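Researcher: Checking consistency across runs. Here is siroheme decarboxylase again:
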Amino acid sequence: MDSGLTPDEFKLLNSFQRDFPLVPRPFAKLAAELRMDESAVIDTLQRLHACGSVGRVGAVFRPNAIGASALAALSVPAERLDEVARYVSAFAEVNHNYQREHRFNLWFVATAPSTSRLRAVMTEIQEECQCGSLLVLPMLEDFHIDLGFDLASGPAANAGRVQESARACKPPVVTLGESEKILVAALQGGLPLVERPFACLGLPEGEAIATIAQWLEQGVIKRFGVIVRHHELGYTSNAMVVWDVPDDEVSAVGRRIAASGRVTLCYRRIRQLPDWRYNLFCMIHGKDRADVEAQVEALAAACELDAYPSNVLFSCRRFKQRGAHYAALSEATHGRD
């Protein structure tokens, strides 16, 4: 599809969402592969970051490998939605916050350095917002989490990588030492777009590169590379699709959905009865609503999902979107990001 990118911009964003070179001058290596100048690569990324097409260049940590995270939702009266959304987005721990088409209409992801801090954030939001029960839905199992987004072919191009990822061992939960906390804090906003970015992360350059490489090998970092923003690049519609699958079937169904290559995310979360019956979630992105609806229908047919109760929650508005912040949040106060 037409993303509005030049050929060089398109190749830079599409080719380096993973397998980013862990070398002292990574942009020089990218430049050599693209037959560009190092300064041109850096300038291009800076420009695309400034216009919103690139969120950052850096790490996508596997959820709950460090810190704790959960998806949550509120049922907010329409006349209070903007007010409540601003309040929720102001938490440093909240990294995604969307309005979706459902009685539970405000959906957000919160990440904290500990389970106790995450619980405290959720408690404060429920008590202060006064919107009834807060759904808090921690992840139990991931089947397909952020392997990137092929701008030429869409999520289906990831099918092979999804199957390879599904065979990988579950990564360890990492307890961070002081130097590792420094590194995580430095990575949260993305690599500096300079010639030697790994020398700017608060650790000796070689130690920073070696630690990132180790986390990638362990699966603590899911991928390291260019993080694109779908909406700004033409995929303007998305829906969270959920199913109520018997617990003894959900893992097999989740793996089947992920292996289809038809979704951008797929994971199992807890139910919260009686308010929320669904335990299997996926995300589908498309050019427009009709595109997403057609993809949902094709997915259900291909993966034999029609027997399971389901719901499709289209995104209406994006209030906040950035990478998860894991480090130093225990010192953050509400309203600071």
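Researcher: Does this match what you'd expect to see?
Model: One thing to look at in this run: The first strand starts at residue 54 and ends at 61.
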